[in-house]
Structures are given as C-alpha cells and as structure tokens.
Specification:
35% of the residues lie in helices and 24% in strands. The chain has 365 residues and is α/β, with parallel strands linked by helices. The chain has two domains: 6-213, Carbamate kinase (3-Layer(aba) Sandwich), CATH 3.40.1160; 218-354, Aminopeptidase. An eight-stranded mixed beta sheet has the order 3-4-2-1-5-7-8-6, with helices on both faces. Strands 9-10-11-12-13-15-14 form a seven-stranded mixed beta sheet, with helices on both faces. Strand 11 (264-271) and strand 12 (274-282) form a beta hairpin. The chain is elongated, with a radius of gyration of 23 Å.
Length: 365
C-alpha cells in the first residue's frame, strides 16, 4: 500500500481504519473478474446525485479497482440520459455482447463503463453477468440498506436461516432478489447501501448497508470433541495476529461453537459463577459478514451466565457493552458479564484480572 499517494490515503483514513482498507484493497485486487463490482443504482440515486456517484467511482479507478454500472428495466434509457451529463460515463447496450471487453477498455481510459439492458429485469441480467463479469454486486438506493419493522438498519440479512428478523414490506422484493442470487450464484458478495455510504460499505469491516448472506452452520460441541484442533489453532492465531504460548488452555474448554469452515469460533470454560468466554475469534476473511453475530447468538441461545475480558483498547468494546449487563474497567482490561448474579461480580472481576494470558508477546484481547 506504499504506492498510495498522500491525498488518497488521507481520504481512505477518513473512511475507516488503515489496516481494514489495506486488507480489502489487497483482497479486491486478487480477485479475477472483468470488473471490481457491479453497481446497480436506483432511479432516485441517479436523479438526485449522478455527480456524487461519479466521484466515488472515479476514486475506485484511482485505486486500480474497475467498477461498472448496470441499468436495467423500463427506466434504463432515461437513467442513461441522466448519467450522460457526466463525461466520465461511457455506455454499452448489453444486447451487443462483449461486456467484459467493453469494461476493460473503458477502465483503461479512466471512464466508468455503464451496461444498459432496456426492458430486461435486474434479476435476469445479474444471473447472466455474475460471477464472470463481477463477483461483487452493490445495489445502491437512496433509502440505503434494508430495514426491520421498526425502521432500523439490518447490517446482515440471512436468506436461509430460520427465525431471522423480518424486513419491511417495501424491502421484500430485494429480499427475494438476494435469496435467488445467493442460491443460483453461491460465493457472490451482495449488498444494499446508499450512494453516500458506498465507499464506507466497501472499505470497512462494519460496513454501511445490508449484506446478504445464506447464514453459517455453527457446530456446538462439548469441549473440543470432533474439532480439528490444527485448524482451530490456525484460526485463533491468525485472528488475534499472535502466537499462542501453549495449548494447555484447550484442556479447560467445556463448550465450543465453531463455524463449519473454521472461519470463526467461541470457546467457553466452566466457572462457579457461570461460563468464562475464553476465545472469541473471527478470521480476517469473514469479518464484516455477520459471522461474529451468528456465533454470539448461538452461544446466547444455548448457554446461561457468561463473563469475559477484553483489552480496553479493543475497538469492539462498544459492541460488547451493548451485549453485557455490566462491565468494569481495571488496568488494561475491560471486564464484561451477562446473567451473572450480583454476588458473583467481584469474583469474576478478580478471576479475569488474575488469569494468565494465552498469547506470546503483546496482551491478549
């Protein structure tokens, strides 16, 4: 990332954490598709701010990420005429074929390619283009991400998990589109966001919209029964970016919750006051996909009182505070509890303060 000029880096710094956007830049550039992402803006987005969209997409080009816009349906020609006011956009009817060649030529000339499919619905066109033209699809609409019945943003929508939070009636069509695409084109990255939050959605772990996911299979075991410990250790060390001092702590694990692909795990230990959350790890590739929340929900659905500690500099402490009944700051630690009796709080704080660290060198979170 040393090749980024100062202006670009300062702009990215204003969007999110440097380690996050550098990780995503490396990841995006390693993908092998005709373009970095297909962006599907709604009519209101283009009518209200084609110039805002043009600015963000030109910025992506400066990062050597080639985006393309897709216009579909009966409004496609009207939207094309609106975009044509910005010189950066060049247009290509999909019926003419050779979409990949057109995208590559336009990007080399630092233009934004726009694919136009008049009178063809979005679902049909995306099924034609994904994943050969792009593996990432961003549905860009003025209303932003999907909302629940209370009007609150849903960061993740799981298309194949029972009892998921329902979306607003107005968003049901997008939910149906998401289910169809993830079923027919597994492995694609599909989000809904607003034009003002597009870059934040792309370059931050937290995102700024709604990510569609099928949902993970979380395997619960007593202790580490049936667990591939080699893969688990690799997950822990890459997630914390630290080496384990020893594996002795694994002998104390009473319950484990592990994603079937070893992209995330929660390890618990028995304590007289409840269960101590020893490790909460999510692999770098899975961050921002909602796996951490899936793991947390699985643990809370099956277990009783919990307590855990986190380095007080951990950026996820704000989220921990929302999940906990209470917390206490002492030294380098922030100690949290959930369902712990009042009489046991001092005991769990003392346990967390005295517990040895499991990683070499720096302090374990």
């Amino acid at each position: 990332m040393s090749t980024l000029n100062k202006t670009i880096r300062m702009f990215l710094d204003s969007i999110g954490r440097r380690e996050d956007y550098e990780f995503y830049l490396d990841k995006f550039k390693a993908e092998r598709s005709a373009c970095f992402a297909l962006l599907c803006p709604d009519q209101e987005t283009i009518e209200a701010g084609a110039e805002v969209l043009a600015f963000d997409l030109l910025f992506l080009l400066r990062l050597e990420l080639a985006p393309a816009i897709l216009l579909c349906g009966e409004q496609a020609d009207h939207l094309r005429n609106l975009l044509a006011r910005e010189a950066i956009f060049v247009f290509h009817p999909l019926e003419n074929g050779n979409a990949q060649d057109f995208i590559q030529r336009a990007s080399r000339l630092e233009h934004i390619p726009v694919l136009v499919a008049q009178d063809v619905d979005l679902e049909t066109v995306l099924l034609q283009l994904v994943p050969d033209v792009a593996q990432r699809v961003h549905l860009v609409r003025a209303a932003g991400g999907l909302k629940n019945a209370a009007g609150e943003l849903l960061p993740n929508v799981y298309t194949q998990v029972e009892n998921c939070e329902p979306v607003q009636t107005l968003d049901l069509d997008l939910l149906g589109l998401g289910k169809k695409l993830l079923e027919e084109r597994p492995g694609i990255h599909l989000t809904v966001t607003s034009p003002l939050n597009l870059l934040q959605e792309i370059f931050t772990v937290k995102g700024a919209g709604t990510l569609f996911r099928k949902g993970s299979v979380i395997q619960h075991a007593a202790g580490l029964d049936g667990v591939d410990q080699t893969r688990l250790i690799e997950l822990l060390e890459t997630s914390f970016n630290k080496k384990l001092k020893s594996l002795s702590f694994m002998e104390n694990v009473s319950d484990s919750y592990i994603d079937q692909n070893y992209r995330g795990a929660v390890l618990l230990e028995k304590h007289s006051a409840g269960l101590y959350l020893s490790k909460y790890a999510v692999g770098r590739e899975a961050r921002g996909e909602g796996l951490a929340l899936e793991l947390w929900r699985a643990v809370c659905a099956n277990q009783g009182p919990l307590f855990w500690r986190s380095n007080r500099e951990n950026p996820f402490n704000a989220w921990y505070q929302q999940q906990a009944d209470g917390y206490h700051l002492t030294g380098k630690w922030q100690i949290f509890w959930r369902g712990i009796s009042t009489a046991s709080i001092s005991e769990v704080i003392e346990y967390c303060c005295k517990r040895d660290e499991d990683f070499i060198g720096t302090k374990n979170d």
